[in-house]
Amino acid sequence: MLRVYNTLTRKLEVFEPIAPPRVGMYVCGVTVYDTVHVGHARSYVNFDAIRRHLEFSGYEVKHVQNFTDIDDKIIERANREGRDWRELTAFYTAEYFRLMDRLGIKRAHHYPRATEYVPKMIEMVKGLVEKGHAYVTPSGDVYFDVSTFPEYGELAGKARLEQETVSRVRSSGEKRNPADFALWKAAKPGEPKWPSPWGEGRPGWHIECSAMSMDLLGESFDIHGGGHDLIFPHHTNEMAQSQCYTGKPMARYWLHNGFINMRGEKMSKSLGNFVTLEEAMDRHGAAALRMFILKTHYRSQLAFDISLVDEAAAALERLAEAVSDARTAMAHLPDSPPPSPTKSARRLAESADGLADAFKEAMDDDFNTPAALAALFEHAQKVFSYVRSVTGPSSPGLDAGLLGRATGELERLLGVLGFAAEEAGYDAEALRRAMEKEGFQTPEGSDPLEEALRLRRSLREERKFEAADRIREAVKEATGFKVKDWPFATTVSRLRMTTERPAGEEASA
């Protein structure tokens, strides 16, 4: 039974979609005026894991995520750089897809852009005016009247609402209430503008998500997600205008991920304390960054710490090594299970049989990825123990069916979290140079890795351990592969956990 924490009610609730097995999920996207940073990545990794688990659980998810491609920040940057605002937003939209693909984020089914929805936004604003929930000012602005919605602020909480400001909305002496927010902004010289019943202008920020979600998911849908910073004012205002327009709840469950903090502050562009996503992935690897994010519950705050990202990379390497060791054992040993299972075999079988249930139990507890990962790491340790038992000098015999099932289950569930084990390539010439540096020649035309492993095994048999260890270090330096000395062969762990998007997945419009 899946339970989710609903920001609106501030409690865990049993997840009951409106029209099962279909689930409508709207996640607020980026304003495309700059590159995405690690704080953005956290939100999209979290909601990608949520979507993947819903699909794993049998739900048919329709995922919608918008692009804000008209906004004060876009106009200001385009003017500052002397660029057309459309060219600017097109560039950063493409950048978003490129970086999210590296991070293993599944493409949403729809990526509506604000500029595509101006007519629908005008229609909605017109309806709110007619219903008495909005008013037109003499200057041509249109504001939502928060006094007409008694539930205004329930999402943020009344106490927080009193502390917050409406700093994202420009001040106007024409407002009836300081908390009223802009639905339509009258045109200013040099700004993009559209015709409307109130004169030329452009939409406010909040109205776009209401219009988009209503068009693509209906007047009420299941999950509305985003970062904790969007609770107020963005989601608070979305809820007010949508529910006043339709008379129905906008979303059944409101989910919000915590911040990534940098030096004790929320990571954000406005504060100038962010690490770009590309910088982080180039330094640590996309898979390590994804693991770093998923090792913390999505609602908790997360401090960006290089040492923690390195720990995540080491954890991924350990998982890949478990799969690699199992494959090595199955490739080199005959399938000859003993008449009765050994202790390590029984433990592995029990773990394999219960792993999916343990994983699902963790994820069903408000998408608890740290607990789900803990179950996978515990299972990987049992894989290691079993492989050691069947590859040692007193091996009872390999049960290839058991080991294959256990590693297959591990890989399947890692896939639910967006990871895949893939064989890594290497630079053959770099390895040749590293070997030559240590005084070893690899014949032209030979595979330098195979030659290095053959030489190491030969030197170890001759008890020339110092020379053999120099080869191990040369291989590690040139390829990053860990050398493994088995009773039957010397190999390397070439598997790496990646976050590559499935081949053939198309970009959504």
The strand count comes to 17
Cα(first) to Cα(last) distance is: 34 Å
Which fold does the CATH topology of the largest domain refer to?
Rossmann fold
Q: How many helices does DSSP assign?
A: 16
* Percent strand: 5-15%
> Helical content, roughly?
40-55%
Give the quaternary arrangement of the chains.
single chain
Sheet with the most strands: spatial strand order: 4-3-9-10
Number of spatially distinct domains:
3
Indicate the radius of gyration in whole angstroms: 28 Å
Which structural class matches the secondary elements? alpha/beta
* Largest beta-sheet characterization: 4 strands, parallel
Q: Which architecture of the largest domain does the CATH hierarchy give at level 2?
A: 3-Layer(aba) Sandwich
Low-confidence stretches: 165-170
- 3D shape: elongated
Reconstruct the topology from this structure.
Layout: E1 3-6, E2 11-14, E3 22-27, H1 38-56, E4 60-65, H2 72-81, H3 85-103, H4 118-130, E5 134-136, E6 142-144, H5 158-163, E7 181-186, E8 201-203, H6 205-217, E9 221-227, H7 231-246, E10 251-257, E11 260-262, E12 265-266, H8 277-284, H9 286-294, E13 302-303, H10 306-332, H11 343-363, H12 369-391, H13 400-416, E14 420-423, H14 428-437, H15 448-461, H16 465-479, E15 482-485, E16 490-493, E17 495-498
Parallel strand pairs: 3-4, 3-9, 9-10, 11-13
Antiparallel strand pairs: 1-2, 5-6, 6-7, 7-8, 11-12, 14-17, 15-16
Helix pairs in contact: 4-6, 6-7, 8-9, 9-10, 10-12, 10-13, 11-12, 11-13, 12-13, 14-16, 15-16
